[in-house]
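Dear support,

I submitted the protein below through the web form. The confirmation email said the job was done, but the results page showed an empty box. After a refresh the structure appeared. I'm attaching both so you can tell me whether what I see now is the final result or a partial one.
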Amino acid sequence: MSIPALELIGLSKTFDKIAVDNLSLSVRAGELYALLGPNGAGKTTTLRIVAGLQRPDAGSVHVFGIDALAAPIEAKRLIAWLPDDPLLYDKLNPLEYLEFVAGLWSVDAGIAASRAEELLRWLDLWENRANRCENFSRGMKQKLALAGALIHDPQLLILDEPLTGLDAGAARQVKDLLAARVARGSTVILTTHILEVAERLADRIGIIRSGRLVAEGTLAELRDSSGSGNATLEDMFLALAQS
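What the results page shows now:
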């Protein structure tokens, strides 16, 4: 049996109130996993813990078999994290930004340049490669941030609302890129409030409420468990999220 890309066991985190409550889930290598839930369900906190940006109060996190709490640097080398409001350096152009990020990951300069061109062309940013980021639209910035997340060729890509602020064309480019990454063997975990995206792209879906996993499976498995073979993901999500 292959090692999961991500395995969470008994994950818990409390701030003023419980954000993640004894959460356990496993994401298979090479799949696109959509983590869904209403606002405040604990999605972002969970992903920030996986990315090493917060420590849990209890539980374990394993990334491709690596204990991410005991060996955070080794685990982070396999991960890319893209928040819903990514940070860019406005005075840099896309090529300078990607060169900078690649340098942080110690990516060979020649390899980084080749990947940068491939990503910028794929995301329709190549013609803007010499323009400063400060003049970019939100959608362009979002796409460049995605390119930065991919420049070190991570095995596990974690995205929090990656389609926020994107028009239909830009959203299609991002979805196509994610599908291509999964087809090449990468693992993608994303959150989204656009349920159609999860319904069409995800291999499996997990739904959390109040920090707990309340349903998980393929779309067909979720329909079977709900007892409605014709239910949309929106129908099942609303029933589970509000029950």
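Response: this is the final, complete result; the empty box was a page-load delay. Residues 7 and 22 are 13 Å apart (CA to CA).
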